[in-house]
Amino acid sequence: MGSMWTYVARSTALKFGFSALVIGSLLGGCASSTESAGVDTLTANVGKYDAPPSGAVKPRVGVPPFSVKAGAGFGSGGSDLNDYAADQMTTLLDMSERFTVVERAQMQKLLDEQNLEGIVTPGEMAKPAQVRGVDYLLLGKVTNLRLKDEETSKGFGLGQVGGLLSIGGADYKKKERTITAECGVDIRLVDPTTGEVKVSNFSEFKRTDSTSAMGIDILGASAEADAKIEISEDDKGKILRLALDDALRKSLPKIDKFVKSGNVKQGGATVAPAAAATPAPAAEAPMPAAGAAGVLPAGAGERKDNAPVAGKKFCPECGTEVAGGAKFCPVDGTKIQ
User: How is domain 33-157+173-268 classified at the CATH fold level?
Assistant: First the structure.
């Protein structure tokens, strides 16, 4: 009898021990699928740009909401992505050190205080208007922002392991996909008083990499099949930030040319780039002031070689200049020839 209970106990322990091993292995595999060296390096260079040209004017720029048209994997876009894109571009513009950037909250406050809410719609200049405190507006559109994937399934389902376990009928798998993120980004630097576009650039962003290298998590059971990809809000922001950084980086040559053009507004006035300062010529030392009765201090009228100055009379003893017609030096009484 004791042997039978010992056998049952050992069998049960082996069964649950094996189950725990399966759970640990699979959960460990799930955790590792979201970890990659690429996660930390993906955005390492975002916001790191070449130094601006020396002496360039830094106009004051505000960024209204962008227009973001999203596709597969990003939902429909909407105001959340519009504002998020504008927030990200505000940060990137400041990091470029080409502009004095107005905070987004301050930008909205300026528009409200001046009753200028309708001068811009997301991504567009609706009507020209003078915005006090802002020299230019940076308008932006993001088009066809989407994710495409090619999946490779790895692992096995817990519910399929010899009937040992079944967690709510779920079939957890480690997934590895090759993801392609792409969109078009159109940015324009606009003079709000005239609506004139000063700088514009359109760029195509495309990045293909594995989910682990991009640090992207695929969410939901629908990701198990060929249905629409679902990713987190943080991952959406990461991809959008990469696209905006790429667009600004490609625009910097045009921006640098503009801020050095000598036709840039700053504080409402057109300002030329700062020129290198030219040293002023050394001023000649002024002649000493005349003393009483028009007599200069001793030695003031002498040349460095002690020779008399033509057209003037000096005391032959002390060298003091004397007034015309004087017969004696007013200092030591020497007779003047």
Answer: Rossmann fold (3.40.50)
